[in-house]
Specification:
Layout lengths: L1 H10 L1 E3 L3 E3 L10 H14 L7 E5 L3 H12 L3 E7 L8 E7 L6 E7 L8 E9 L3 H13 L2 E11 L4 H7 L4 E11 L3 E4 L2
Parallel strand pairs: 3-4, 3-7, 7-8, 8-9
Antiparallel strand pairs: 1-2, 4-6, 5-6, 9-10
Helix pairs in contact: 2-3
The structure holds guanosine-5'-monophosphate.
The site of guanosine-5'-monophosphate has 18 residues, from strand 2, strand 7 and helix 4.
Length: about 190
């Protein structure tokens, strides 16, 4: 998506070797007009798949999921990072290791909001090692819902998550694929 790549070139900053900061437009301050275009692009790519629910994980996925859901005219469900134990029975639960914080979270989705009648599109801001998507896919599998695929805004294609998850047979659409990046030379895109 050219508009997104231009914005990353203009406003993204690279920290160390593997963190791209896009918090002036995507995950701290949010450019809602850009998210609207992102939502439309996901809708175009997954049109005709029967999507009736968008699934993401808190917190940075929620804005993207809402604008995407507006294009699909369907609800958003977001997986919550849970502190509560012993709620098994009412929720699907899985574990996700956070790329940015390096810790493992229990994440949950209520059984009331996902089930075998659903066809789910997962969305998230970044795909790096794939832990967040693995967790969300696990929740969809537990629910018996159909998985249409996953839409990520930025895939860091030099990290292994995208290849690994596609090899599992999941359709993954990334709107910008970063081939390499560095503090000195900025971001280079794969295509
Ligand atoms: P993964 O689980 O694929 O390793 O990482 C995906 C999650 O980590 C995303 O939900 C995102 O919040 C965070 N993340 C991964 N890489 C980056 C990055 O380069 N920049 C930012 N801002 N977040 C990232």
């Amino acid at each position: 998506m050219e508009l997104l790549k231009q914005r990353i070139r203009q406003d993204g900053t690279v920290k160390g070797n593997d963190v791209l900061k896009v918090d002036s437009f995507l995950n701290h301050q949010i450019d809602v007009a850009l998210l609207e275009e992102i939502g439309r692009e996901f809708q175009r790519r997954f049109a005709g798949c029967g999507v009736n629910k968008i699934l993401t994980i808190e917190a940075s996925g929620i804005g993207i999921a809402c604008l995407t859901a507006q294009s699909f005219r369907c609800p958003v469900v977001f997986a919550k990072k849970s502190q509560t134990k012993n709620i098994a029975g009412e929720v699907y639960t899985t574990k996700v290791e956070s790329f940015t914080h390096g810790r493992v979270y229990d994440v949950i989705v209520s059984k009331r909001f996902l089930g075998p009648e659903d066809c789910v599109l997962i969305v998230d801001d970044f795909l790096a090692n794939g832990a967040a998507l693995d967790g969300l896919i696990d929740l969809v599998e537990q629910s018996g819902a159909k998985l249409a695929g996953a839409g990520v805004v930025i895939e860091k294609a030099f990290q292994p998550g995208g290849d690994r998850i596609r090899a599992r047979g999941v359709r993954v659409e990334a709107l910008a694929r970063v081939k390499s990046m560095s503090e000195e030379n900025g971001v280079k895109f794969a295509d």
